[in-house]
Amino acid sequence: MEGLVHSRFNPVHATRHRSFNSVVTSVQPLEASGLGHFDNTLPSKDILQLWRSADAVCFDVDSTVCLDEGIDELAEFCGAGKAVAEWTARAMGGSVPFEEALAARLSLFKPSLLQVQEFLETRPPKISPGINELVKNLKAKNTNVYLISGGFRHMINPVASILGIPPENIFANQLLFGSSGEFVGFDVNEPTSRSGGKATAVQEIRKVHGYKALVMIGDGATDLEARKPGGADLFICYAGVQLREAVAVGADWLVFNFADLINSLE
């Protein structure tokens, strides 16, 4: 497409000029009280062994590593928050194909490059309590950490920078802008832009690196899909921000705070 450009703005580089401090809010994780119908909140010995022996852990970003849904926050910043949030709920619940929901949400507000830059300048990432410590503990065990998201690289790069995750360990979508910075779409060649994309990304990671044990952690239907032959061996549902019952029921292990995962590494 003539005049089509990827954004040249790199929020990771922006940290050299200003503090890109994350916001660890006072919001506490959802608690498991009153949710006794879930029988997967206590891991079996086999699940614990898989978790402790993992040589790679892949995290979803929105409502897992971060306390919010990035596209909803960007849409709210651009004046279309409510309509986009409704689409997000449908997409995360698995009721509509992800690529359809992504295109529909972006069409509602069509963010320009300038708007994205302003958003990043004024809205630091809201990091979930405990995630920084968990990532540090995993890295101390020489476990490779990845971010796999249906969100956008522009918004995930700062999160990765805070957590010390290299750019090559990010699988996410790319916004596309015209020569004047106008929104023209998103890169449909990214696996995470469509349903089943996270599973494809996880399978690619495993194939390239030959990991023996790989874990996926997230809150949505697209995260659960990553547990399949050649993909993730274990799916941990993190429900500290959003509890999606169908996803929670299908998980190998359901947790409501990252402290449980940190303590279980020992």
TrEMBL record:
Q: What's the Enzyme Commission number for this chain?
A: 3.1.3.3
- What residues sit in the active site? 60, 62
Keyword Lipoprotein tagged = no
Tell me the domain of life: Eukaryota
A Gene Ontology biological process term: L-serine biosynthetic process
Q: Which InterPro entries match?
A: HAD-like_SerB, HAD-like_sf, HAD_sf, PSP
Name the pathway.
Amino-acid biosynthesis; L-serine biosynthesis; L-serine from 3-phospho-D-glycerate: step 3/3
Q: Reaction catalysed by this chain?
A: O-phospho-L-serine + H2O = L-serine + phosphate
Q: Which UniProt keywords apply?
A: Amino-acid biosynthesis, Hydrolase, Magnesium, Metal-binding, Serine biosynthesis
Tell me one GO molecular function of this protein: magnesium ion binding
A matching Pfam family: Hydrolase
Cofactor dependence is on: Mg(2+)
List, alphabetically, the PANTHER family matched.
Answer: PHOSPHOSERINE PHOSPHATASE (PTHR43344:SF2)
This protein is called: phosphoserine phosphatase
Q: Which source organism does the UniProt entry give?
A: Salix viminalis
